[in-house]
């Protein structure tokens, strides 16, 4: 028995499913999760001493690689001054200024502790601002685990087969409308039915929770136009895409300005942080300026701010090098996977935007919809996953998650990963 296996058996006695977040449980690929001892740069080291090239990056935030020396140093310095004050600090202003500079549509910004809090509050704010009840989301998009967002949700909810979670009263869920990603007609149909009561559209501008699906040309523009015409608030959930597909996220990459933006994990450089922000006119409705209530004892925590400020400063100061690097890595990786699959006679297609990528076991030329993503050969993905893991490559343990590169990945890492994929495809 490995140490990981022993720990997992022990963990299951105390923690539901042995994990503190279901996406870690390997339910999407079978087998037991690997327990991690430490991480450095592009690598994870498990408790049995095995090293992995990591393409999960703590589910997105490790754009500069794990355990970055300057971020670690910033955290150490903050820790020496105290862990939490529950009163304002200058670091919160620095963080807000940084975010505004990088993502100009965020005229005002509030820090929270997770992506879930960010999206939950952005929706409450959109409802409070418009005086409307309904929200429109897309099937297969995941926006955290707030009640009204666990309707046809992606990520772990999709992997576990519970896109509509029990525990969400039908009275709540009835206000959540779901349309099809990359299908503006499905959005227009809902707006023509009840547009007067739709407070907001929330979308992952590049879907990353049903594998990786970029927006078709015109899709995000269409959402912007529909919101403008109907008075609904357009929310870009950039928890995954923020500082990832480009420095200014998907809104910078595609040049579309949402009304509100939600950010998550990346903004804390790995610490538990999230944020929401947008037009000042809308943000002014949040307490204490306005009546829409939102609060957080540990929000803007000084340790998390220190990590986040350092991470965002490093990304902004080195943006050209960072984004051309992680984009080139992801491009090379998906091209390498595709060529290796072709030569092994395995049907595969890939998607990639900036440092975010996905691959699908399917005959389809291109995957652009939720429907296509769910029709892929999941069994083949599961086998491939374990063949890669055995060779020391750590991919997201589900066919419904995107992968991420980092500036810490070397050319040798990418080549070794492609080599491992060649072997894995041949064995499928
Ligand atoms: N929105 C998106 C797009 C996400 O990918 C996630 C989590 N992966 C969330 C929201 C929720 O963030 P958290 O897990 O920090 O609550």
TrEMBL record:
Keywords: Aminotransferase, Cytoplasm, Isomerase, Porphyrin biosynthesis, Pyridoxal phosphate, Transferase. This is Glutamate-1-semialdehyde 2,1-aminomutase. Homodimer. It is found in: Cytoplasm. It holds the Pfam family Aminotran_3. InterPro entries: 4pyrrol_synth_GluAld_NH2Trfase, Aminotrans_3, Aminotrans_3_PPA_site, PyrdxlP-dep_Trfase, PyrdxlP-dep_Trfase_major, PyrdxlP-dep_Trfase_small. Its cofactor is pyridoxal 5'-phosphate. It is an enzyme of class 5 (isomerase). Pathway: Porphyrin-containing compound metabolism; protoporphyrin-IX biosynthesis; 5-aminolevulinate from L-glutamyl-tRNA(Glu): step 2/2. GO terms for cellular component: cytoplasm. The keyword Methyltransferase does not apply. Belongs to the class-III pyridoxal-phosphate-dependent aminotransferase family. HemL subfamily. The modification N6-(pyridoxal phosphate)lysine is found at residue 265. NCBIfam families: hemL, PRK00062.1. It catalyses: (S)-4-amino-5-oxopentanoate = 5-aminolevulinate. The gene is hemL. One of its GO terms (biological process) is protoporphyrinogen IX biosynthetic process. It comes from the Bacteria. One of its GO terms (molecular function) is glutamate-1-semialdehyde 2,1-aminomutase activity. The lineage of its organism: Bacteria, Pseudomonadati, Pseudomonadota, Gammaproteobacteria, Alteromonadales. Its EC number is 5.4.3.8.
């Amino acid at each position: 028995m490995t140490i990981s296996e022993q720990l997992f058996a022990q963990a299951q006695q105390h923690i539901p499913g042995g994990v503190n977040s279901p996406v870690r449980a390997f339910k999407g690929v079978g087998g037991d999760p690997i327990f991690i001892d430490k991480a450095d740069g592009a690598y994870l080291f498990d408790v049995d001493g095995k090293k992995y090239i990591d393409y999960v990056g703590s589910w997105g935030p490790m754009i500069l690689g794990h355990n970055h020396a300057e971020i670690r140093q910033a955290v150490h310095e903050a820790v020496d001054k105290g862990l939490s004050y529950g009163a304002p600090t200058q670091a919160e202003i620095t963080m807000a200024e940084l975010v505004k500079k990088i993502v100009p549509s965020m005229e005002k910004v509030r820090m929270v502790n997770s992506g879930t809090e960010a999206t939950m509050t952005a929706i409450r704010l959109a409802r409070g601002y418009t005086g409307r009840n309904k929200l429109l989301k897309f099937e297969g998009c995941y926006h955290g685990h707030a009640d009204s967002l666990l309707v046809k949700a992606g990520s772990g909810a999709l992997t576990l087969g519970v896109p509509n979670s029990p525990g969400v009263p039908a009275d709540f869920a009835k206000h959540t409308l779901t349309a099809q990603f990359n299908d503006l007609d499905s959005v227009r149909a809902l707006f023509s039915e009840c547009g007067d009561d739709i407070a907001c559209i929330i979308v992952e501008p590049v879907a990353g929770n049903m594998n990786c699906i970029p927006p078709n040309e015109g899709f995000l523009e269409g959402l912007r136009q529909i919101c403008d015409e109907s008075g609904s608030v357009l929310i870009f959930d950039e928890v995954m895409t923020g500082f990832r597909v480009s420095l200014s996220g998907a809104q910078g990459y595609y040049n579309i300005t949402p009304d509100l933006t939600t950010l998550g994990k990346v903004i804390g450089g790995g610490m538990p942080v999230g944020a929401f922000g947008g037009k000042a006119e809308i943000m002014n409705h949040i307490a204490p300026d306005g009546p829409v209530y939102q609060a957080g004892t540990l929000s803007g925590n000084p340790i998390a701010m220190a990590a986040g400020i350092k991470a965002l400063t490093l990304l902004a100061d080195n943006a050209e090098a960072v984004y051309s690097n992680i984009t080139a890595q992801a491009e090379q990786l998906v091209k390498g996977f595709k060529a290796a699959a072709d030569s092994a006679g395995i049907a595969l297609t890939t998607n990639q935007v900036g440092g975010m990528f996905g691959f699908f076991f399917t005959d389809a030329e291109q995957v652009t919809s939720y429907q296509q993503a769910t029709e892929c050969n999941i069994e083949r993905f599961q086998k491939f996953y374990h063949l890669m893991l055995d060779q020391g490559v750590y991919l997201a343990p589900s066919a419904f998650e995107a992968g991420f590169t980092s500036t810490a990945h070397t050319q040798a890492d990418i080549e070794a990963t492609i080599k491992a994929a060649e072997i894995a495809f041949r064995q499928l």
